[in-house]
Amino acid sequence: VDVVEFYHPDLDHYFITATQEEANAIDQGVAGPGWVRTGEQFNAWSLGGSSDRDRRQLADVCRFYGSLKLGPNSHFYSAASSECKFLMDLQDLIPDDKPRWNFEGYAFTVPPVAPSGPPCPEDAIPVYRAYNNGFALGIDSNHRYMTDPDLVDEMVEEGWIDEGIAFCSPVN
Question: Which strand (E) or helix (H) includes residue 136?
Answer without folding.
Answer: helix 134-137
